[in-house]
Amino acid sequence: MIKNTVGNRIRVDKKDIVWFFILICYFESPYLSRFTVMDTVYTVAKVLSFGFVVVHLRDIYFNSIMALIILIELSLWVSTFIAGSSMISVTIQFVSVTSFIIIISIMLKKDAARCIRVLYRIMALLIYINVISMLLFPDGLYTATGVVGTKKYYFLGHQNSLGLYATIAIVLGEFRLQTEKKEKFRLRNLVILEVISLFYIIRVWSVISFISVAGIIAITFYNRMSKKGWRISLVWSLCMNIVIFVLFVIMQNLQIFSTFLQKFLNREMTLSGRTQVWAIAFSSFLQNPIWGVGQGKGYEMFGFATTHNRYLNTMFTGGLVGFILFNALLILTCRKLKFSKETMTQILIAYFTVLFVIIQGETFDDILFFLLFIFVGSIQYLRQATIREINRCSVRTNDLHIYNRSVCKWAHRKQ
Q1: How far apart are CA 299 and CA 143, in angstroms?
Q2: How far apart, in Å, do the first and last CA atoms of the chain sit?
Q3: DSSP for 101-137, written as a single string
Q4: pLDDT-based confidence at 253, cuts 50/70/90?
């Protein structure tokens, strides 16, 4: 045990440390990866992390969401192979994603509360380092070679990347509020992270990141204050975003939002050049409709690694095969997260409501994107962790079970 600055004990044991180092190698810093030594360290660490899988072979399991994620990555590998592009990067990505989802699923099965705690600490650490890099190097920590545009790059890469990190960290913090009441994880710890994330986002002014972080904060706050919770169906949310994708990305009918874009978001009608990228990417998809162009053609065609839209990027790189698999993943997620008063489900519904919106403006094509999809597939272990924590909050005094209201009143009300 160690103590933080306010005197609260922080639970850190050997297993936490081991899990921390197993997982952090999968959240590569684009800045550090630019150095050959660090890139090698990340690769070696991932190889060593596979030992965790070997040790826990009996705990390996697969569900439909995990299978779809693997199929999505496999289809991208096939698309790249058919296109005749370099296979090194996409092969590493396929192996990394597969290993990552297996490791996370095992950890959730073994000890969901610990897995959430370790992931939250990793996310918080990366966010704080990224904010520090922005304060020390306001004009950018480095310049990305071969990339068109004026955006700045910090510890976590592109200035817009922190939005997804912060959003997922907030969700993990909400999970910790449910699973670690006796470990003194308090709401104020989460609020500090939220404030720092918003400070960074406003300072660099990333519209997508602001929508993401402000949206998840607003919805989770509403969930805490309301007995009914967030009641918008994920199915309707997904359908609405598919319509938006067709109208404004494929057909590019942005005129009706011209006033909102120009006066409130301070964006021109091209959305910082996105519309030109979308036009090129969709034209390329029409020429390669089945398998797409594979991974790694973005720089060559329009000067960016991705299309800045997850739906279109899936069509561009993976064709109809990848697009169908990706939408199957989204639909299955919606089915598994039917509205419920159960707290873990409500938190995940809030997250995916926000995610379906922000992937209209960014691609988020790294491992982090799939993290909470794995949680959906293993949601039974999250619920078990919550129930165990509620039971732990019951104490025995004078041979009678006395309910500890000061600690568990909110958890029981939500359950």
Answers
A1: 15
A2: 30
A3: HHHHHHHHHHHHHHHHHHHHHHHHHHHHHHHHHHHH-
A4: low
Instruction: Name the burial class of residue 407, with classes exposed (0-12), middle (13-18) and buried (19+) by CB atoms within 10 angstroms of its CB.
Output: middle
Task: Give the per-residue pLDDT at 19.
Answer: 95
pLDDT higher for 272 or 78? 78
| Measured distance CA(210)–CA(24) in Å, rounded | 25
Beta-carbon contacts of residue 154 (< 8 Å; ≥ 6 apart)? 31, 130, 133, 134, 137, 140, 141, 162
Token representation of residue 188: 């104020």
Residue 179 CA to residue 147 CA, distance in Å, equals 43
- CA dist 313 and 295 (Å) reads 10
Q: Which two tokens stand for residue 381?
A: 């272990």
Cβ atoms within 10 Å of 9's Cβ, excluding its own? 11
Tell me what pLDDT residue 151 has. 73
Q: Average pLDDT over the chain, rounded to whole? A: 83
Q: Which helix (H) or strand (E) holds 348?
A: helix 343-358
The pTM of this model reads 0.86
* Chain segment 149-183, per-residue pLDDT in tens: 557 899 998 888 889 999 999 999 999 988 886 55
Look at the block and give the residue holding tokens 């990555």.
73
d(CA 1, CA 9): 6
Per-residue exposure over 93-103, b if at least 16 CB sit within 10 Å of its own CB, e if not: bbebbebbbbb
Segments in 160-273 forming alpha helices (H)? 162-179, 187-204, 207-225, 234-244, 258-259
**Rounded mean pLDDT, 293-306:** 82
User: Shortest CA distance to 105 belongs to which of 367, 371, 347?
Assistant: 371
- Our CA dihedral for 249, 254, 259, 264, rounded to 10 degrees, sits at 0
Residue 267 confidence (pLDDT): 52
- H or E element: which one contains 158? strand 157-158
Task: Say if CB 133 and CB 180 are below 8 A apart.
Answer: no
Question: Is residue 316 within 8 Å of 294, Cβ to Cβ?
Answer: no
Residue owning tokens 């967030």: 230
Identify the three-state secondary structure at position 309: coil
More confident call, 140 vs 407: 140
Q: Give, for 283, the enclosing helix (H) or strand (E).
A: helix 274-287
